[in-house]
Fold:
Amino acid sequence: MIRTLGLVSALALTTALGGCAMMTAPGSDMPPVPASAVQFEYVRDVHSHARPEIARVKHVALDLAADFDAGILAGTAALDIQGAQGANEIILDVRNLDLRGVTDANGGPLQYETGANDALLGQPLTIRFPALTQGETRRIVVAYATRPDAAALQWLTPAQTAGGRQPYMFSQGQAILTRTWVPTQDSPGIRQTWDARIVAPSELKVVMSGEGLGQSEPAGPGRTAWRYRMSNPVPPYLIAIGVGDVAFRAIDERTGVWTEPSMLAAAHEELIPTAEMVDVAEALYGPYRWGRYDILVLPPSFPFGGMENPRLTFATPTIIAGDRSLVSLVAHELAHSWSGNLVTNATWADFWLNEGFTVYFENRIMEQLYGRDRALMLQSLGWGDLQSTLADLPAADTRLKLDLAGRDPDEGLTDIAYEKGAAFLRTIERTVGRERFDGWLKGYFERNAFRPMTTELFLADILGNLIQGDAALESRLMMDAWIYQPGMPSNWQPPVSDAFAPVDAAARAFFADKGPASAVPWSGWSTQERQRFLAWRPEGLAAGRDWLTDAQLADLESTLNLRQEGNAELVFAWLQIAVPHRYQPAVPTLERFLTTMGRRKFVLPLFTSLWAEGDWGRPIATRLYAQARPGYHPVTTNSVDAVVGRP
Structure:
């Protein structure tokens, strides 16, 4: 039987939706949200100072000006709050904000204080006010400015952009960085609606993860104001902003691409499959609830592959490969519109509920569009990544439900959440059958829309709506072992891709049998087949050098033209071979790669590999990091600093 921890009453799942009040903004292009859908009994979030059971933020109204010279946003955040009967204070999360005052809606000053600073969590900001009555909504206004080192924001010089003429700024709030630019209750379980007025230099455009409200408007000499709103309640980490010299091109009536003008044609061509992906996703698991789905292709310093900000996915330019071979990333971020944005992990200990569901959903989109073979190749590549992660992590961190108390939630951002979580769902699908599983999953999204989700509520849902008292089925699924135990349960079956069989044979012939690289049919392979080839390692060897000679490495690099390779995934895979072998001729490729993009997925492992190579690798790592670090986002530098140290 499945154990439940009693954190949240499963009754929260059973709120009736029929006939309930609906919430939406007048004129919005998004479907209304059932008022009852956002009812929830709050779980204690160890990564937030907030006490939402006393008083909570319901809506955030931002009025901010972007100062590129100072590298700050300054203005106000007006917060609509509700609380328990008699509540006379609210606790917000802030980190490195310069607070300038707090008032009520009429401008009257309110008492406030900040608590002890924690390097990870920041400070609690406690604001006191006359006692609330039950159901009352009260507005408080916080005047503040961010600091140039705000961890969520990156301010780029013109030289760091593709166009080279204008500066650029963008945010990355996940997991707990929104508090560095918005004073609010920065917990994924405290969903909030928001609106914003952002003033920026007139030669730039402001884009946000919300619905644009009409045309921009003058805001003083050389300044323009832009307005956005999000009428669906979202976790604070999904409030996102970009300011720069960007242009837009539509794909169809509800999808399109934003990016710098010089990148627009290539990005648009690469991302044309987006429109069909939205149609496929809706056919699988129900209506898309956010209106538009656009993609902002950012400068190369963006630290992630993509970020699922509602209505406006933020994406790395490293997915623009020229052949649409990496568009599974778009499928992933789109899938988050259901798993993550619609139904959100209540705390970061439940992160697998966002990412495991999304990897599963992404693969179903790819299967529908590109066929079963492509989907199985992607599954197999993910399985390989998972095996490496299982070997590297402490056993306790290979459980789906994590204990992250006292730790950065980014420590849970591993392939356990992504690939083990997806493997768990594929195991359920295989056991109950796809049709039955799809019926449950579509219902799961509908029943829990706009609600935070815990592992325990997930278990209550699947027990009540899929297993339905079938003890034998519950036993076969081994859910307790998947969620609460380390490693992989015995009922998992690794994915098998027949398309990879000839790739594996070619890899053995070259890597193990010392055959020539000219025998590798590289030009006829897809990107996924090439990734599989470069990921091959001798049996039992997780990492290390001396299994290839310098002559083999030179043959591989030259014959496959790896010095000129433009696909970031393949460059990364090649460098993961070259660095452990201390292959000096690859250092220029390594230097170019690490100094021209800041995607943490690539940057952190390469610096980690360099650092492991002692007297050869550490001087290279120190030199390259000193050169590259100023162009990286804080999300990336915080991770690499822990390996290389801060220059």
Q: What stands out?
A: The two ends are 52 Å apart (CA to CA). The CA atoms of residues 22 and 35 lie 5 Å apart. The chain is about 35% helix and 20% strand. Residues 372-392 form the longest helix (21 residues).
